[in-house]
């Protein structure tokens, strides 16, 4: 699992 | 999207609407920390600049617009329209002690040293402590109106639900964002004391009053 940001989150 | 994130967003939306309606209908912002509301307006402004650069979904864009609109409207009501009812004496938390360290941390610890990313990181760190002036004000006044406690409960519940959302996303999607998770844990921990009082007092119909 990467440390992708949750830019789809509010 | 999962059920925890959806209910987290709805809880957050409820908190924002409850507060705005409370001030508007009672025509008073007594017991409300204007400083916390300014911090929340900063949180949304620095976090949602991507409204200008990327489109994710209608839900995402509309919720961001609502959050920004309501937070600025709330700040306007507190500091302009109902300024006479603003309790400045008890809203005395030194927010510079929050903004400066959070700003420094955002520059030091982030995922990418770009302006948008640092502003997003600043917003995440700031949100985790933005409620402190409000909690501090309640500790100084020793009490809170029941509607204010419902606002705080929804506000605290939203990030707690996000924590479950992140567990869900890690397990099912393999995604995790350590910065958002650590800040979310800190944010939720800050509400624990309030959650205890809310469950043991407000839900039993009593007024929330702290031992002065």
UniProtKB/TrEMBL annotation, chain B:
Location relative to the cell: Cytoplasmic vesicle, COPI-coated vesicle membrane; Endoplasmic reticulum membrane; Golgi apparatus membrane
Keywords, sorted A to Z: Cytoplasmic vesicle, Endoplasmic reticulum, ER-Golgi transport, Membrane, Protein transport, Receptor, Transmembrane, Transmembrane helix, Transport
GO terms (BP aspect): protein retention in ER lumen; protein transport; vesicle-mediated transport
Single GO MF descriptor: ER retention sequence binding
Top-level lineage group: Eukaryota
InterPro entries: ER_ret_rcpt
Transmembrane segments: 65-82, 94-113, 119-138, 150-168, 174-199
Gene Ontology CC terms: COPI-coated vesicle membrane; endoplasmic reticulum membrane; Golgi membrane
Pfam families xref list: ER_lumen_recept (PF00810)
Main subcellular localisation: membrane
Membrane topology, from the record: Multi-pass membrane protein
Cited PANTHER family: ER LUMEN PROTEIN RETAINING RECEPTOR (PTHR10585)
Family: Belongs to the ERD2 family.
Name of the protein in its database record: ER lumen protein-retaining receptor
């Amino acid at each position: 699992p990467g440390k992708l940001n949750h830019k789809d989150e509010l | 999207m999962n059920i925890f994130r959806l209910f987290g967003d709805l809880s957050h939306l409820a908190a924002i609407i409850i507060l705005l309606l409370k001030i508007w209908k009672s025509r008073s912002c007594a017991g409300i920390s204007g400083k916390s509301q300014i911090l929340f307006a900063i949180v949304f402004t620095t976090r949602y600049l991507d409204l200008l650069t990327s489109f994710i979904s209608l839900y995402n864009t509309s919720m961001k617009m609502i959050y920004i609109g309501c937070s600025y409207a709330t700040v306007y009501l507190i500091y302009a329209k109902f300024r006479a009812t603003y309790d400045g004496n008890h809203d005395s938390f030194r927010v510079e002690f929050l903004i400066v360290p959070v700003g420094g941390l955002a520059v030091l610890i982030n995922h990418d040293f770009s302006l948008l990313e640092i502003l997003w990181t600043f917003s995440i760190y700031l949100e985790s402590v933005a409620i402190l002036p409000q909690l501090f004000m309640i500790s100084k006044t020793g009490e809170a109106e029941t509607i204010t406690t419902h606002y705080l409960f929804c506000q605290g519940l939203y990030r707690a639900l996000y924590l479950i959302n992140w567990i869900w996303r890690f397990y099912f999607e393999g995604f995790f964002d350590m910065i958002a998770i650590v800040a979310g844990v800190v944010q939720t921990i800050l509400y624990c004391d309030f959650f205890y009082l809310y469950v043991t007092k407000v839900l039993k119909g009593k007024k929330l009053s702290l031992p002065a």
